[in-house]
Write a structure and sequence with these properties.
By secondary structure, the protein is α/β, with parallel strands linked by helices. Helices cover about 40% and strands about 15% of the residues. The protein folds into 2 domains: about 25-115 and about 210-335, D-Maltodextrin-Binding Protein, domain 2, CATH 3.40.190.10; about 115-210, 3-Layer(aba) Sandwich (D-Maltodextrin-Binding Protein, domain 2).
Length: about 350
């Protein structure tokens, strides 16, 4: 009986050792992953492209293929169908929407501490804040109506009568001095300035209290459970890619971005990187304490509570099913980050 107990204890110890090694050993050299982005290749995806170009994935035993998105690409559907291994969630809404639909997918990293969404107006001394835009026509996409538009209604009293369809053309905004348009702080303001010949007034929603994360890495629970080392390797390499892309030489990542999306330009990418840094999109907030990619329970709860208040979600939605902190908050890649 003593021998049986000794064997059992030895077996338990070996099992524990194998489980521990699964979490700390690098992924196998032949581990292939497809990661889908939420839009055409751009600087807002730069860290992932940099990680491919500079070998941050490869040194961790990953062969990563980036599949660029676009207007017809639906990341939640691709993840739910198993058509991709990992995907980008444009904001915290993606994670909670998948919980609501019963899809077992979690956010494992938030590359952006601030959502880069903005509202822009023509220069107007009467507009000093988002509250001054009540009653004006606002160009927003269909997807926006069910997401941050609800927050704008709740916080600033906007109404559905203000909504105008945004078709990703700047012409309606440029032709109407009273129009308001959504955009990314890294993109549309620059395009308006270069194509429209004036500098718009820009209001970053995150600076007005909008609590969403952005540029999330979404992983199926099946992958998290079966290959935690692979998920950790992808997260760590992506963090290093972002640190290097923003605070190092971005030329390698830019070359891959331009190869995937020839409609972009080096000038557009350069100014977008500058805006990402200047606005603290990647490196502010909890990232200052825990490193790039950081997430916290408190921040997720803040987002959930704000969206429950706007009736986007029921108050019993399972927040802990939307994300996991197991792979972040480890200050990975800080040696690559050149602080101001």
């Amino acid at each position: 009986m003593k021998n049986v107990r000794a064997i059992s204890r030895s077996a338990l110890i070996l099992c524990a050792l194998f489980l521990g090694l699964a979490l700390i050993l690098p992924a196998r050299a032949d581990e292939k992953l497809t990661f889908a982005t939420d839009w055409k290749a751009q600087a807002e995806h730069g860290g992932f492209y940099q990680a491919v170009a500079k070998g941050y994935y490869a040194k961790r035993g990953l062969e990563v293929k980036i599949r660029q998105g676009g207007p017809a690409v639906n990341i939640p559907q691709l993840l739910a169908a198993g058509a991709i291994d990992l995907g980008m969630g444009s904001s915290s809404f993606i994670a909670l929407n998948m919980v609501r639909e019963g899809a077992k997918v979690r956010a494992v990293m938030a590359a952006f501490q601030k959502d880069p969404q903005v509202l822009m107006v023509h220069p107007d001394p009467n507009v000093k804040s988002l509250a001054d835009l009540k009653g004006r026509p606002i160009l927003v996409s269909d997807a926006t109506i069910g997401t941050f538009w609800k927050w704008l209604e709740f916080k600033f009293g906007y109404t559905p009568a203000q909504i105008r369809k945004y078709t990703y053309s700047l012409a309606p905004f440029l032709n109407d001095p009273r129009a308001v348009q959504q955009g990314y702080v890294t993109s549309e303001p620059y395009l308006i300035e270069t194509q429209g010949g004036f500098k718009p007034q820009v209001y970053l929603l995150a600076n007005e209290g909008y609590p969403a994360y952005a540029c999330l890495v979404m992983a199926p629970q099946s992958l998290i459970d079966s290959k935690p080392a692979v998920v950790q390797a992808f997260v760590d390499a992506s963090i290093e890619g972002w640190a290097d892309y923003l605070w190092g030489d971005a030329s390698a990542g830019d070359r891959l971005i331009l190869a995937d999306n020839p409609q972009s330009t080096p000038e557009l990418l350069a100014q977008a990187r500058a805006r990402l840094k200047a606005e603290g999109i990647v490196g502010s907030g909890d990232a200052e304490t825990f490193g790039i990619g950081a997430m916290t329970d408190a921040r997720w709860k803040s987002f959930r509570d704000a969206m429950v208040a706007t009736n986007v979600y029921a108050d019993d939605i399972k927040l802990d099913a939307a994300y996991t902190l197991a792979f972040v908050n480890k200050r990975v890649g800080e040696e690559l980050r050149k602080r101001p």
